[in-house]
Amino acid sequence: MTNKTLLGTATALFGLVMISATPASADLLDDITQAKKIRISTDVAIPPSGMMDSSMKPTGSDVEVAQLLAKDWGLELEFIQTTGATRIPNVLTGKADIIISTLSVTPDRAKVIDFTKRYATLQSDVGCLKSSTVKDWPDLKDKPIGVSRGTTQDTTLSNMKDKDLKISRYDDDATMVTAAVSGQVDCVASSATIINQIGVKNPSRVFESRIPLATFDLAIGLKKGEQRLMDKLNAWITENVKNGKLNAIYKKFHGVELPPDMRS
Predict the structure, then answer these.
(1) Largest CA-CA distance found in the chain, in angstroms, rounded
(2) CA 176 to CA 18: how far, in whole Å?
(3) Is the pLDDT assigned to residue 2 strictly greater than 80?
(4) What residues have CB less than 8 Å from 21, skipping those under 6 apart?
């Protein structure tokens, strides 16, 4: 055998060794399965979707959705506490595996992360102090509207350039509600559920929905490119919509059922 032939054979064998030594690229579903744990980004300061009970344990509709998912998949659940502004960064940086935290599906967000099919919906309104005279957009002139930074409500109001709105931004829903409860703002833009919570915290300052914003689909968020995890999540949502478990969770905390077109 010539030196040239030996060199060619050695090179080929070296290539095969290198290929076999290169580990197969694992995806996020593999990582979750191997860890036997799923890390879920959830805001526990936005009742009734996420909150702490009297024993300081997480509860709420999103919390129970996350718990049901982990139980069905046989995984340990770790809540990664978050705010509206940090939900998406949590999955992009690998701090959390998925987001279950009143995450509305929007075109801008879909450029950054992937969404599953919807597991719930969110009605958003501008709510004001019950004693106020606000009925429509013109009545909001010069009235600060409290909103949680980085939420769909914040984006929706910010894009209404023709309304000349005065927006007061807060770091999270809990801080925004505190501002409404304490009299810092007489109007907020949020989910109808959170608007109703203000009067519960301070019966002397009851808020009610006055101007509808939009109804948003809520979905589980995950990093782009994780198709196997996406497929498994979608199958899980389909199953638990069909068996009524997701509807039961939503009704338990929000007092209403999921939209009929989700349950049919």
Answers:
(1) 98
(2) 57
(3) no
(4) none
